[in-house]
Amino acid sequence: MHTSYDLHTHSSASDGAYGPSELVRQAASVGVTHLALSDHDSTAGLEEAKMAAQRHGIQLIPAVEISTTWLEKSVHIVGLNIDAGCDELRQGLHALKCQRVERAEEIGRRLAKHGIDGTFEAAARLAGTGMITRTHFARYLVELGLVPTVGDVFNRYLVRGKPGYVPTRWADLEKAVTWITRADGIAVVAHPQRYKLTASWMRRLLGEFKEMGGMALEVVSGCGHATDIQVSAGHARRFGLLASTGSDFHSPEHQWLKLGRLPALPADLTPVWSAWSG
Ligand code: AMP
Ligand code: MN
Ligand code: MN
Ligand code: MN
Q: Residue 1: is its pLDDT beyond 80?
């Protein structure tokens, strides 16, 4: 049977544009057969996504993308095929949710000092019951007409050194890997090229990650540039990591990040799904 995997996507349970059902519908319509919903620090969309996947005849792999801090750096860890009911994971994610609300309030205060009022309330309204993220602030500032695009808001207001940036210590990397492992999931280092690490820092990250029980690397990520794939494949071979593939789809506005449109994994690597599909 033909298979097509997309193991990193977002819904409105975090900063994705679509609700879980709509995301699943769109994934099925472009031919994805195995979809992981991996919202930031949240598993709240998984039930709805699972039911939608049954209706559309595709497999939903329950997942989460955990925000972690490793040596002062932000690193995202996707947990694939998790048991979302695991207490340890739930407690960890609950703490991150509280932290996100506190951070968002502080972003609101800082932007207010900078002359833009009411952004916390507006971002919270856009996030609804989902996790509040910087993307919600960015969408609101675009809505206000203050800044043309979400990307511009990040560059002007929300990244390090800008007025609305709030430094945050996320979950400890080792703890996040442990929560995922306890929840019977596979921990994956997401979008490795995004961290702008030198080769030796990347080797250090992956070596420590593996010792913590981490098992996989997102070798094909985002739009899947050929050189990024080659570099990541080299890391996966060196550290004996399973290979994952995911678009990190959020919204159709990101024209370059398309749901389910991913180049193949290098043939010599072991795909991450071999860990659960035998
Ligand atoms: P947060 O986890 O709240 O810090 O928000 C991070 C999210 O913002 C990421 O998951 C991306 O979806 C989005 N993001 C980060 N940097 C940018 C950027 N430069 N342009 C657009 N979106 C971004
Ligand atoms: Mn995001
Ligand atoms: Mn990420
Ligand atoms: Mn993501």
A: no
Specify the CATH number of the domain 97-158. Answer: 1.10.150.650
Within the chain, all domains assigned CATH 1.10.150.650 are found at 97-158
| Side chain identity at residue 8, one-letter code | H
Q: What is the position in ligand 1's atom list of the atom closest to the CA of 132?
A: 3
Amino acid at 44: A
Q: Ligand 1 pocket: which of 154, 162, 251 to mutate (most atoms <8 Å of CB)?
A: 154
C-alpha closest to that of 132 among 13, 10, 9: 13
Expressed in angstroms and rounded, the spacing between residue 102 Cα and the centre of ligand 3 is 20
Give the model confidence (pLDDT) of 90-144 as tens digits: 999 999 999 999 999 999 999 999 999 999 999 999 999 999 999 999 999 999 9
In angstroms, what is the span from residue 24 Cα to ligand 4's centroid?
Answer: 16
Give helix 46-56 / helix 20-29 axis angle, nearest 10°: 30
Q: How far apart are CA 232 and CA 218, in angstroms?
A: 8
Residues paired with 218 in a beta bridge = 244
Name the helix (H) or strand (E) containing 174. helix 173-182
What is the topology classification, in CATH, of domain 5-92+171-277?
A: TIM Barrel (3.20.20)
